[in-house]
Amino acid sequence: MQAQGLYAGPVFDMARSQFEQVADHLGIASDERPRLLYPKRAISVSVPIHRDDGRTEVFQGFRVQHHLTRGPGKGGTRFAPQLEMGEVAALAVWMSWKCALADLPFGGAKGGVNCDPRALSRRELEAVSRRYMQEMIPFVGPKTDVMAPDVGTDETVMGWFVDTYSMHQGFTANEVVTGKPVGLGGTAGRRAATGRGVALTIGEAMKVIGLPPVGATAIVQGFGNVGSVTAEILSEEMGLRVLGVSDHSAAYFHPDGLPVAELIQHVKRHGALTGWSNELLTDPRELLTRPCDVLVPAAVERVIDADIARRLQCRILAEGANGPTTPEADVVLDQRRGEVFVIPDILCNSGGVIVSYFEWVQGLQRLFWSEDEVNDSLARQMFKAFANVVSRAQRDGISHRMAATAIGVEHVLLSKLQRGLFP
């Protein structure tokens, strides 16, 4: 299938390569493939704001809705430097397969603004958030496309989104986003949901390979919301020793384990890992290849390349980030299938969108659940998806990524066939 110029870039190339492999495996006709892969709608907007020094600056904003066949679009909104349409489109594609794999009534979507939120004051961040949502109002809504937090955004930004959208509608419509504060109609358990889902799938993988959690070791790359919550649950609730952690500012390693709770408090006070220790600093790339039982890449795309894949010394690779493993690395990992148990991203990090679905349902019904109810429902959904992926991989003799993506693609294809093509 020929690339479309609008979606050029290494991240979308990676998503297309994964899809083509699955389409070949499933025997999908060539004329059906473009409709499955390429987005229904791609939106690019200008986001002008007044900077604190009086200057006017224009940022570029994006939203891609991959498909709306199974329900509203669903996906995060990231504020990050160098963000471009191809990356956003790839993330929307992965969200489609992720939602379908988890059997959620959503299509995949993703969006964001090309900016560095760390370089913005709080007032400037609010201005970017509100103007971006204002530009998106014709294209989003509780039954059209439901936003959520992602890299560089949080529940505060979602609160600004809710207010901007609601002021335009003339009534409170807090179900337009998920991941918002509980006081604005958010759900208990949402902030920790992605990291908790990662930990749940790690626990299931440990059962499959016969690895007891207590005394096992882990390394977590990325110490934002997903990575820090995963590290906390692995160490505090499951009994693993976290040997290494990293973020954009620093990487630390100690063979006897790191104090995860102390690191979390340091990040809350200082905004990053840097400055916690000078003695335990290590090379962030080499951290990925140190010996451990569980490696969790929970930062950005394409960090596990073929070279890293050959040198991995983990027993479980749990993909907390979206697209952390390149197609070239997948070839290596497929050859190492008996050595490294891969939990692919669309399964491993799906806890966030699953609990986002719970939040959306609660918002529509105005009936809210306890955190225990949310976590219990999350565990059931994650365990079901995990079992389906492992069973499919064993049945067909394919990788876990191929199995997970095949299930997702099949669900979307079936929905499109059942609805037909209009007009």
Automatic annotation (TrEMBL):
Marked site, Important for catalysis, at D150
Question: Single Gene Ontology BP term?
Answer: L-glutamate catabolic process
The entry's active site is: K110 (proton donor)
A Pfam family this chain is assigned to: ELFV_dehydrog_N
Per UniProt, residues of the Glutamate/phenylalanine/leucine/valine/L-tryptophan dehydrogenase C-terminal domain are 187-420
Name the residues that bind NAD(+).
T194, N225
Sites where the protein binds substrate: K74, K98, S356
Q: Which domain of life is it from?
A: Bacteria
Gene Ontology molecular functions: glutamate dehydrogenase (NAD+) activity; nucleotide binding
Of which family is this protein a member? Belongs to the Glu/Leu/Phe/Val dehydrogenases family.
> What name does UniProt use for this protein?
Glutamate dehydrogenase
Q: Which organism is it from?
A: Phenylobacterium zucineum (strain HLK1)
